[in-house]
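Structure tokens please, single chain.
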Amino acid sequence: VKRVIMIDTKIASRLGPAKEALNNKNVEVIVYDHHHRSSEDMKATYDYSREVGATTTILVNIIKRKKIPISPLDATLFTLGIYEDTGSFTYPGTTHKDLEAASFLMKKESNLFVVLKFLNLSLSEEQHKLLENLIMNCKKIKINETEILLSQAEMPNFIEGLSVLTRKLSQIEDVSIAICWAKMKEKIYLVARSDDKDVDVSEILKIVGGGGHPQAASAVISDMSFEDIESKLLCSLKKNIR
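Here you go.
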């Protein structure tokens, strides 16, 4: 391996087995990421990280600057990436650069009908089952007058979309902060969402090895029980919510 390109992360521990390639000092590391910097960040040969709402925005700006031609299909795919990462420009991390990138893609004939179709996909049968389990197991706690929803579930197979289900659960239960974790196969996947500008869930999840954005963070855990996770989260919530 001579070159490693990291997209949407700069933390080696999140690469799984691929992180072993980074032990070679001669490997060129290129990073495209929009997450906040942390002490765990890799030292990259070329770091194109920017504080924007979507990593796709970084790529689009490079394409725009270098005048690289793109097709309407390319423009549509890039637009979908920006819409997904910014919550259709509603997430607090969205910047004017994301809107400008989307405007550029519209000029390149991005198809919003296709974007809308993929953004509004209905839940699969497995996702419905996972959501039902999360609803049944959810509980609300209060820390310094801030209400937080916690929920957990266990499924035999890996199911995509825990982040979407966590968002849906927060809307169903009408809370601004939700943390959900689910054991699927051998690992536990954890997602946190916050609509409270004063509550940074990326800080809260550091205690379980997670990270991300102030309003959207996640972790993949393989060495903790549900009880340990909840105990650590409660400690972190009490520390970070004042």
